[in-house]
Each structure stands twice: as C-alpha cells, then as structure tokens.
Specification:
Blueprint (H helix, E strand, L loop, with lengths): L11 H5 L5 H12 L3 H8 L8 H17 L2 H16 L2 E3 L6 E3 L3 H21 L6 H10 L1 H6 L11 H11 L7 H11 L8 H17 L3 H7 L6 H16 L3 H4 L6 H9 L12
Antiparallel strand pairs: 1-2
Helix pairs in contact: 2-6, 2-11, 4-5, 4-15
Amino acid sequence: MGDPGLFTPHSVTWQMHGDPMMWVAGVRALYLQALHPRAVRGVLQNSDFRRDAWGRLMRTVNFVGTTTYGTTEAAERAGARVRKIHRTLTATDPQTGERYGVDEPGLLLWVHCAEIDSYLHVLRRSGFPLTDAQADRYIAEHRVSARLVGLEPETVPASRAELAAYFETVRPQLAAGPEAREVDDFLLRPPTHPLLIPAREVLWRRVAQLAYAALPPYAHELYGRPAPAPTVVTRRLRATGALLRGIPARLRWQLPPKHILRAMARLGPGARPAPYKVG
C-alpha cells in the first residue's frame, strides 16, 4: 500500500471531497470570504483574478485535491508553497493607509472557516448523508489543513458549536464593501470568450446564484440582494446534487487535476471515495 496522505481513506474528508457539489460549495465560500474587508482586500490587491479566473480556480482546486488525496509529502509541499507566498504579500487599507500582511492569523482563520463551513453546509443541505457527529469529525479533521496554511491547530474550531461561536464573534467585522461588490459582479459575470457567453448565462450563472442563495441570511442582508425562501433553496440544492451525482463518478473524476484517480491507483480500488463509507 502507498502513502494514504494526511487525511487517509478512513476520513470523512476523503469521502466528502469527492462529491460534485464541492464546486457549488467553493463558490459559496468565495461569496462568504469576500465579506471580510481585510481578507478580500488582500486578494484583490495581490491578484489578477479577472484575467486569470480559470487559473486561480484550478490552483485552489489543485490545493484542496492535493491536501486531501495526495501523499503526505505532496500535501506538506503544497502547504509550504502557500505559506511562502503569503509571507511575501501585503495589503493596504485605503481609508487608514495601514499596511498589513495577508498571513495575519485572523485573516487565515476567516478564509479557513468560510471554506469549511461552505463545504459542510452545501453538501449536507444537498443530500450528502452526514450525522451531526460526523459533521463535527469533518470540522476537526481540518485542523490539519489549517496547519498547512500557517495556523496553530488548537486555535481553529473543531466542532459545529465552535464554528458557530466563531462566526458570531467575527460578524461585527463583516461588510459588503466595494471589494465584495466586485467579487459579486465577477462571480455572476466572469470574463469569458464571446462564444461562451450563452453558456455562462445558462450554466455558470445558475451555479453562482445557487451558491449565493445558500449563504446565511446575514450575508444576504450585507450584500443587499434577496434570496429565495430557505425551503426553496434546499429543494434546489437537493435537485442539483441528485443531478450531478447521477453522472458516473469515474467520468466526473476524469476532469483535471484527477487527484482521486491517482489516489486510487496508489492505494487500490478500496480507496474509492463514497458517501456510504463515512460511517
């Protein structure tokens, strides 16, 4: 048997991150992360995401895939790269002139918690079967990914209750400033080739709207854009989840960067992620 990596096929993370609704969850995370002015400022002032939207998205997907399904060495190497990049980046508050590092623990913690909350919320709400205890286990497992980006694991929420308490604490710092509006506009209308604009309007916009609708109510209030009733959103999430999960996994996993297929080749067919293995 090869190296099972940091999470191993026995983890909740291993099973969850193979689910196709992770794409919708990732967009929700971007919407949520953009509501922290200092965090989103660090992204916009150090990124050409409008010109390299696909590249940035794939780098994020590759990082999550590597840390979940890659070898221990590959995951640690990916984390070291991220920490090295973050150490060199700064952002400036346009109102006060304050210059700060994007690797401030508070900012890293916000990005981490917004991601984990989004992954867990969207997958559970769309029909991925998880008990409350398994959801807590998933959150606790991601103290590992928090360490990779530079956080002290003991400072990171390790249960649903701790995660909820964290969001209550940080909510007064959140706002939908001009940077968040720019992210919102970008997610609804990402730059694309003129021939692909119809597909963007039909497919991508629906994904972005569903991800936005899955945000917590306070996020809708901050953005100032309403969302359908929670029961409607849940119904749409479950319908989308059923549709995407109906696509054969082997076909879905052929899309780059193919981390799951490589993990199965390394560890054997028993490493195949599946919801029923969570227990």
